[in-house]
Amino acid sequence: MKSARTRASFFGFFSNLFLFIIKLIVGLSVGSIALISDAFNSLMDIIASMATIYSVRISQQKADSNHQFGHQAAEPIAGLLYAILAGVVGFNFIKESIIRIFSPTVENINWLPFSIIIITMLLKSYMTIHFKKVGKQHQSPVILASSVDSFNDVIASSFALIAIGMSYFGLPIFDGIGGIFISAIIIKGGYEIARDNIKYLMAHAADEKLLAELVQRALKIPNVKGVNDLRSHYVGNLFHIEIHIEVDKSLDTKTSHDIGKAVQKELESVSSINKVFVHIDPV
Fold this sequence. Notes:
Elements: H1 4-30, H2 33-59, H3 74-102, H4 111-137, H5 141-168, H6 173-201, H7 208-219, E1 226-235, E2 238-247, H8 253-268, E3 273-282
Parallel strand pairs: 2-3
Antiparallel strand pairs: 1-2
Helix pairs in contact: 1-2, 1-4, 2-3, 2-5, 2-6, 3-6, 4-5, 5-6
């Protein structure tokens, strides 16, 4: 049975494929750079969805001799590659949009482009909510990146709607202007996704709220007298934790070991934690 992350990835792929085809056909038929830019925004989303499907499948593989702490890093790597692609596509369409400002090509505007953009906005709004829910539930950076991208697509489609509307009323110059705004949104989305995924790849530490929760969980274990050191860093999209707990020095080795295992089990029950290393400090 496919996981929720995998189902979300396939839903994103087929939704973006549908949007790319209809927006490209209509955009080419009316010569709108704003709508064509939006179509290629969906093409990027298709590529991102394919990367998401693959990275989710890799990240779910169990640890092996070459990857002894699992394969979670596959997801932030995919997110970073998507961000780079977003920058390339965005800058290329800014250049094309500037050309279209001085040489507009939009023509034959009818009800069809408006319908396509409204369908896009409705579908992308749903995708934003759905991906955010799944991404948070499963600590998935690549699914959360899809949520951010879907929200940016709603904004991009709003600019496309305005641009098409202005062209309909005899102001085709706004088609190129709309294309520039959409391209800027593509670049902005890529930057945000890169920023969020770099922290996973750079072994960023956990926030103070999570660390405080871990200390409280450790202290509630019987015979734990204190915590004198706590470190954390991302490995993929999950945390590795190193914690020093204080126990009575008169305890025998086995009892101290059992206390450490209880702390490890308690902390590893937190969904964002992959592995906990417990050091015993006799006091």
